[in-house]
Amino acid sequence: MNKQYFVKDSIKYLPFFGWGMWLAGFIYVRRNWTQDEKKIHATFRTMKRLQTPAWIINYVEGSRITPKKLYEAQNFSRKRGYPVMDNVLLPRTKGFVSCVNEFRGSHIKYVYDLTIAYRQTTNLKGVNQAPSMVRAHIHSLWPEYEFHVNVRRYAIDDLPNDENELADWLRARWAEKDSILTTLKKGWIGGLDQKLMWKETSW
């Protein structure tokens, strides 16, 4: 199964990781739609022509959350009348809308929406610290971390055809994510369709 990730262009300069991602065919984007659009569509056209089984992984928030970025996203949402969220950033819709429209009527049939939450069970101060990228790839994270994953599947044929309505649909899913994460933070229970805990794995 082929996996295609969208990653920031600057990551390709990281030793080992960046080169490996480039060799694996990851899609490097600059967050400039004029520059990115042709590259993205060329990749997808090849996948459709070859009927390549694939997962297209798109982190549509576009950046890691920080207090400053969350504050800016909340202010932007208030001005635009979008959902104001506390646990996630407002999604960037243009790339997602383009991907969905590109794959309508193709062998790619579904959009999977994953919401991943974690807590650091060994931290007595109650403050979660995310594991570094290196540690996440070379060490087992259990039992120090507990993970919950919510998975939902949507048929592309059932999604709105109008681009603005599709963008609104995506923002509504993000509001649901925010609600799920709020529920988890209140006692770390309930609110999930599917609960999964990572078990120890040999990497």
Automatic annotation (TrEMBL):
<keyword id="KW-0012">Acyltransferase</keyword>
<protein>
    <recommendedName>
        <fullName>Phospholipid/glycerol acyltransferase domain-containing protein</fullName>
    </recommendedName>
</protein>
<dbReference type="InterPro" id="IPR032098">
    <property type="entry name" value="Acyltransf_C"/>
</dbReference>
<dbReference type="GO" id="GO:0012505">
    <property type="term" value="C:endomembrane system"/>
</dbReference>
<comment type="similarity">
    <text>Belongs to the 1-acyl-sn-glycerol-3-phosphate acyltransferase family.</text>
</comment>
<keyword id="KW-0472">Membrane</keyword>
<dbReference type="GO" id="GO:0003841">
    <property type="term" value="F:1-acylglycerol-3-phosphate O-acyltransferase activity"/>
</dbReference>
<keyword id="KW-0808">Transferase</keyword>
<keyword id="KW-1133">Transmembrane helix</keyword>
<keyword id="KW-0812">Transmembrane</keyword>
<feature type="transmembrane region" description="Helical">
    <location>
        <begin position="12"/>
        <end position="29"/>
    </location>
</feature>
<feature type="domain" description="Phospholipid/glycerol acyltransferase">
    <location>
        <begin position="5"/>
        <end position="97"/>
    </location>
</feature>
<dbReference type="Pfam" id="PF01553">
    <property type="entry name" value="Acyltransferase"/>
</dbReference>
<dbReference type="InterPro" id="IPR002123">
    <property type="entry name" value="Plipid/glycerol_acylTrfase"/>
</dbReference>
<dbReference type="Pfam" id="PF16076">
    <property type="entry name" value="Acyltransf_C"/>
</dbReference>
